[in-house]
Design goal:
152 residues, 11% helix, flat
Length: 152
């Protein structure tokens, strides 16, 4: 039996030998040239009371030795600003409706650190967010609510 790999809707046999090396290098090259943004959720934080990004989750497992079981509650979203973990609920994410241009610097692909080139990606953020995180370069910058509006 031949293992099958589904890639972009085409079913083809899984490559072996140098074909698999070429396929891995092709996928690595594509990921370097066309990176995908990370998911950033914006929620109202119960700890600091602001609309902030929540890019990580926390889950605490409980081991019960006598019953030989493990219980895992639902994951909690962790605030990037204050570190407060709060349980998720239906409809707790705030809609991102304002376009923001990133002012950060890109990560270098080969060496460590940031490059001299600006990121410049445009992404959506909620209007009530005081701090936003760029999904492309992970730079944290002031949000639309922190920037004073120009009213004439």
């Amino acid at each position: 039996m031949v293992a099958m790999v589904v890639r972009s809707g085409i079913v083809e046999p899984e490559p072996a030998g140098w074909s698999s090396v070429r396929l891995a290098l092709r996928e690595l090259w594509h990921e370097m040239r066309h990176p995908t943004p990370r998911a950033v959720r914006y929620m109202g934080c119960d700890g600091c009371g602001q609309v902030t990004s929540h890019s990580s989750d926390q889950r605490l497992y409980t081991l019960r030795v006598a019953e030989r079981g493990v219980t895992a509650p639902p994951p909690k979203a962790v605030c990037d600003e204050c570190g407060h973990a709060q349980p998720r609920a239906m409809g707790d994410e705030i809609l991102a409706d304002v376009p923001v241009t990133c002012a950060g610097r890109r990560h270098r692909r080969i060496r460590a650190g940031r490059s001299r080139r600006r990121c410049g990606q445009v992404f959506a953020a909620p209007a009530a967010a005081t701090v936003v995180a760029c999904p492309w370069c992970s730079t944290v910058q002031p949000g639309p609510a922190a920037v004073p509006s120009r009213s004439s």
